[in-house]
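Lab manual, section 2.4: Encoding a predicted structure.

Procedure: take the sequence of the chain (193 residues), apply the prediction step described in section 2.3, and record the output as structure tokens. A sample record is shown.
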Amino acid sequence: PSPPDLIRGSILLALLASWWRLIQPMTPTHPRLHLGILIVLAWLAVIGLDFLLNAGIFATVFAEDWEFLLSPQDLFRRIPLGYGAFLVLAILVAWVLGRSAGAAPMNALAGVRVGVRVGLFVGAAGALGLASISPAPMGILVAWFFSYFLGAGVAGTVLGAGMGGMRIRALAPRVGGFFVACVAVAIGIQNLG
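Recorded output:
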């Protein structure tokens, strides 16, 4: 990695470390380790969905030669930054769910409801912000919006199930299966298209 990439990565890690310290007071009913594992599971589910969306369903949008996008090699090198953004999204959904704990019974359905609400705002803000500073075509903006909208919904589903009492031993294989299914479907779409 180049020095600017290392600097960006260090900044991201510092931000994540500060957010990690804030999580415990916001979710007093879940021990920090349990919540951390749930966040990692939610993050993996979002990465799987992102692979399905961007390497499968929206692949043709990104395959076109858009002037404002980086070269494919540079895009590939920066994938960890994008996955870092999804980790921040999972932390945000966990924080919102933790703040709403007790208002209603917590389960996967409650989690997805909160997640899609978070994703609606994060996705819309991101797409509008990108549109305001770049010549991004509508296809890219739509893909950007849906990546965050659906990603936050998936994160909410995983976090809601875990915060609602589903054991990690039961949840982890389901997340793993979802991840593998997303990758398999994306590969299938690539081979068909």
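Check your result against the sample. The two ends are 33 Å apart (CA to CA).
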